[in-house]
Amino acid sequence: MKPYIPESKLPRVVIIGAGFGGIQLAKSLIKTKQFQVVLLDKHNYHTFQPLLYQVATGGLEPDSIAYSIRQIFHKKKNFIFRMADVERIDTNENEVITNIGEITYEHLVVATGTQTNFFGFDGISSQMMSLKTVPEALNMRSFILQNFENALLTDNNDKKSALMNIVIVGGGPTGVELAGALGEMKKYVLPNDYPELDLEQMQIYLFERQPRVLSNMSEVASKKTEKYLKELGVQIFTSTSVNDFDGKNKVVYGDNNEVIKADTFVWTAGVKGNLVGGLDEKVILRGNRIQTDSHNQILGYDNIYAIGDIAAMIEKDTPRGHPQVAPVAIQQAELLAKNLMAKGKKQPLKAFKYTDKGSMATVGRNRAVVDLPNFKFQGVFAWFVWLAVHLISLVGFRNKIAVIMDWIYNYFTYDRAMRLIIRPYHRKSKDD
Amino acid sequence: MKPYIPESKLPRVVIIGAGFGGIQLAKSLIKTKQFQVVLLDKHNYHTFQPLLYQVATGGLEPDSIAYSIRQIFHKKKNFIFRMADVERIDTNENEVITNIGEITYEHLVVATGTQTNFFGFDGISSQMMSLKTVPEALNMRSFILQNFENALLTDNNDKKSALMNIVIVGGGPTGVELAGALGEMKKYVLPNDYPELDLEQMQIYLFERQPRVLSNMSEVASKKTEKYLKELGVQIFTSTSVNDFDGKNKVVYGDNNEVIKADTFVWTAGVKGNLVGGLDEKVILRGNRIQTDSHNQILGYDNIYAIGDIAAMIEKDTPRGHPQVAPVAIQQAELLAKNLMAKGKKQPLKAFKYTDKGSMATVGRNRAVVDLPNFKFQGVFAWFVWLAVHLISLVGFRNKIAVIMDWIYNYFTYDRAMRLIIRPYHRKSKDD
């Protein structure tokens, strides 16, 4: 079955995935007026993943950090969006096989990003929380609040603690920012909501296998971050592995197999590519990334490309590929649009070169760390820079305003307004 | 099992339901400092039902019209909230049996409100949409948008139409306001999102068995409303019954059993009380309402009361009880608080007398109808009055601001920003 897609005389570029890379590529290609652009995604919205943790902790609503894909491309010509799950690529027939039928392409771009990699914990992953999608963020919000409601119902202190405790595995940006936001909830929000509970009984644990959190940033940033987290009451275990989780509340960690009890177990310790079937196994590298040349062309395929987190451009300077962050995806998308134009005109292609503008993370109000290529700073000013960069990057005027308003509200009231259990979350029904 | 609830020397009032009546009663009782107030609800939030249709049509986010119950009662003494499903009342033991255990009471107030009454369509109700809760509103939003995505995939015009068409049964305020909001979506929003679809193929049908819509309002209000709806392209069938719905898209209506095709079938044609078991059957009246005396005391029970939509105070002036609207619930709650005080002091009780401040409904931008006791008006001014009254009634500063911002955005852009399919809705999995 072929789903109805308007005919065009222009060569068709099919893009799988409407993340930062896919959206940018579609925008750049539409501008050239030389292609019919067909964008596929399983959702009808683009997710601004860097702020998911604020949805999970009640600071923002989901509608503020997600944006209608159709809206982004209103009134654009030669653009088609279809909501579709891609099953595999038929590289011989130049077709993408999806749940809505087969879609042919002249050029195909895989921009499917990553999903959580649970490593050895795959078997029990449905009992854990993760934070890659809007439904996952809403589930986490509901789950934590439901546990607090349940903690009220017991007078057994061990049970109470276990219901309130939260373990986060992975001290990267997601783990750190989530730990900070939860620390603020514990300090400012939950005591007002639950005067009957003793918040001293609640612990937030952050586990990181490396010797420091934010190991991709500078040492000064890591140190400051650990200080900030401790100020918010987060217990940090660096150079420490989590060895086991029983799917309920028993967490085993460290060389001596020590045990803590925590109902909420959040996994942020790694990602793997969202692979699409049909490609030669040789091009699939560690972490399900797809090997490309310096033009993002997948090795061995003349008209198939990969950009962003799923792509691994293995070069001298990048033996393990580029960092899996939004700026790489956006820059690769911009260049690929140019290279597709050049290809059409049989002009030489340009090799990708990443311009690293720095990285940052926030722990809480007035607490952030910023590493620029030549300058590193932390504290209140870093926090304002973090706010400004994230606001500017948000898609859409309405979302920017909504987020500003909520941030102002959160700042002055010390409150997090979005703590409603609108769809209760029960383990084992994780799929949305 | 008894869930942990702090002891108190004050007599305990248990309130079931945190709607307009339950919240008001709790507030009034707390002020007296003479009672321990235990409020039960199956959700941890209060829903502002009058604006649910705007959540369903993408104009507002759910977090703006729902409000944390704990937040409403921050720092209040002698107040306890528990999230609980009430199963029945044990009137002999003065206990409420819930999913979290038994809770004893000195006084009990049933303020459980209503749910959708599907009448003869009960068997197929899981295939219909309704609009009494936030999850239902979100399901409707997702379902309509999913149907539009699917309409893109077929070139069969009948299928396309059926996917886009919407049937609303019931021309009361909910049906009218929903029809108007959908008419605006059809006119302003959907053409931009779906340039590939011919919106002429989409029909919105509104069915009402009475000879006019809004039959509880004045004739001039009904007439103006029907005119407004027609301007927005809504097809109105008054004095017409819907006879059958096949659970997919076949709708049979009228004396001649005519057929239309519509995947989205919305039922807003009636409500019935959310009954709690354990009461004498004699006090349960038509529509599952509970008969009370003029003090909201349930007939035959000395210390059990019912207020709001579930209560039927059958008197000379109100042979079928009061209208099931928020002002009745709020006024009954205020009086019941006073009467409970009076009862404690063995003072005489005051009989309830409803002060009707009028009613109103909106159809769309600049289009509303208002009936005051001595004055009726329609149009732009009525619309502003409608906006102001609803804003003032919303609970919480943050929600007021968020709603104002979204309304301003919607007004100037003609857009509805919240059209994300965040949790896809599939029939037969309606329960959240």
Q: What is the strand content of chain A? A: 15-25%
Tell me the strand order in the biggest sheet of chain A: 5-2-1-9-20
Task: State the low-pLDDT regions of chain A, or none.
Answer: none
Task: Let me know the largest β-sheet of chain A.
Answer: 5 strands, parallel
CATH class of the largest domain in chain A: Alpha Beta
Instruction: Find the structural class of chain A using helix and strand composition.
Output: alpha/beta
Q: Could you report the average pLDDT of chain A, rounded to the nearest whole number?
A: 95
SS element count, helices of chain A: 11
Gross morphology of chain A? globular
Radius of gyration of chain A: 22 Å
What oligomeric assembly is this protein in?
homodimer
CATH topology category name of the largest domain in chain A: FAD/NAD(P)-binding domain
- Total domain units of chain A: 2
State the separation between the terminal residues of chain A, measured CA to CA: 26 Å
Largest interface here, residues on each chain? A-B, 55 and 55 residues
Q: Can you name the CATH architecture of the largest domain in chain A? A: 3-Layer(bba) Sandwich
Number of strands of chain A: 24
Helix content of chain A: 25-40%
